[in-house]
Write a structure and sequence with these properties.
CATH topology of one domain: Collagenase (Catalytic Domain)
Helix content: 55-70%
Distance between the termini: 67 Å
CATH class of one domain: Alpha Beta
Strand content: 5-15%
CATH architecture of one domain: 3-Layer(aba) Sandwich
Protein name: Zinc-dependent peptidase
Number of helices: 11
Shape: globular
InterPro entries: MetalloPept_cat_dom_sf, MtfA_fam, MtfA_N
Largest sheet: 4 strands, mixed
GO molecular function, one term: metallopeptidase activity
Keywords: Membrane, Transmembrane, Transmembrane helix
Bound molecules: zinc ion
Length: 274
C-alpha cells in the first residue's frame, strides 16, 4: 500500500512538473524581459545595428527584452580561436530578435547553440557517387543553420553584413529565418503561421514568386531578390526575409504581394521603421 502511494506521488509530481514547465518558462521569460538592459549593451547595438536607432522607443524596449531572453537561453561558442565577447553576442542576438518583434516570440525553440568562427570556415562534405564511392569535398562557408540545434556563423561576415545594411545580404537574418522555417519540423519555406487560412495565401504567393525568380534568373534578368533564393523554396524564404528587412522599398515596389505576406507574418513593416 505504501509503495502504491509513493508511486502515485512520484507520478503526480512528474505530471505536475511537465504541466507547469511552460508556465514556469513564461514567468522566467517575463522576468528577463523586464530586466535592466545595461547602457553599454545599448551602446554596442546602437553602433553595430544601423536600424536600431530608427526604431521607436517602444520597439527598442521590446527588442531589449527579447535580447535578454535570447542571451539567457542560447549558448555561444567561439570556434577557431575566437573569443566570444559582448559585442559578438549582442550583434547576433539583436538581429535574431529583430525577426521576433511584435510576434509572440518562441525564441527559436530548437536552437541551443550558436557557433561563431572568426572568418569563413571550411566544412568537409561527402556525396555518394555510386554504391561504393563517395566524393569528398571541402566547402568554404559563411554561415549555416543546422536543422536541429545549432547555427554556425562567421564573425567577419556578420560585421560586413551589418555595415552594409541595405544591400539585401545578411547572414544572421538568413540563418534565423531558416530556424523559423524549421520550427514545424520541415524546412520547406513555410514557417508556422497563425491561422489555417494563412497557409493557402502563403502557398499561392510564395509558389508564384519563387517560380518567377527561377525564370528571371534563367533569363539572366536583374532581380531585387538575390539569385540564391532560386535554389529551393526554403532558401527563397530565407533570402526573401533578407530582402524584406534590408531592401523594403524595392521589394514592396517589385513584389507587393510578397511584401504584404512577409509583413503579415513578421507583424512588422520595415518601411515604417527602418
Ligand atoms: Zn540558406
Amino acid at each position: 500500500m505504501l509503495n502504491a502511494i509513493i508511486v502515485f506521488l512520484i507520478v503526480a509530481i512528474v505530471v505536475a512538473l511537465i504541466w507547469l514547465r511552460p508556465i514556469l518558462r513564461e514567468i522566467r521569460r517575463d522576468r528577463l524581459k523586464n530586466k535592466f538592459f545595461p547602457l553599454h549593451w545599448r551602446a554596442i547595438i546602437e553602433q553595430n545595428i544601423p536600424c536600431y536607432q530608427t526604431l521607436p522607443r517602444s520597439l527598442q524596449q521590446q527588442l531589449h527584452g527579447h535580447i535578454n531572453v535570447f542571451l539567457a537561453e542560447k549558448q555561444f561558442l567561439g570556434c577557431g580561436g575566437l573569443q566570444i565577447t559582448d559585442e559578438i553576442k549582442l550583434t547576433i542576438a539583436a538581429q535574431a530578435c529583430l525577426l521576433l518583434l511584435n510576434q509572440k516570440g518562441n525564441y527559436y525553440p530548437k536552437l541551443k547553440s550558436i557557433l561563431v568562427y572568426p572568418g569563413a570556415y571550411i566544412v568537409k562534405t561527402t556525396t555518394p557517387i555510386s554504391d561504393y564511392l563517395v566524393e569528398e569535398k571541402q566547402e568554404i562557408r559563411l554561415g549555416e543553420s543546422w536543422y536541429r540545434d545549432r547555427i554556425v556563423l562567421s564573425w567577419e561576415q556578420i560585421k560586413y553584413d551589418t555595415k552594409n545594411w541595405q544591400d539585401g545580404h545578411n547572414v544572421i537574418l538568413h540563418e534565423f529565418a531558416h530556424q523559423l522555417d524549421g520550427e514545424d519540423g520541415s524546412l520547406n519555406g513555410v514557417p508556422l503561421l497563425d491561422r489555417q487560412s494563412d497557409y493557402m495565401t502563403w502557398a499561392r504567393v510564395f509558389e508564384r514568386e519563387y517560380k518567377q525568380l527561377c525564370s528571371d534568373i534563367e533569363l539572366g534578368l536583374r532581380t531585387a531578390i538575390d539569385a540564391y533564393g532560386a535554389t529551393n523554396p526554403a532558401e527563397f524564404f530565407a533570402v526573401a526575409t533578407e530582402t524584406f528587412f534590408e531592401k523594403p522599398q524595392q521589394m514592396k515596389q517589385k513584389h507587393p504581394e510578397l511584401y504584404a505576406e512577409l509583413k503579415h507574418y513578421y507583424k512588422f513593416d520595415p518601411l515604417e521603421w527602418i
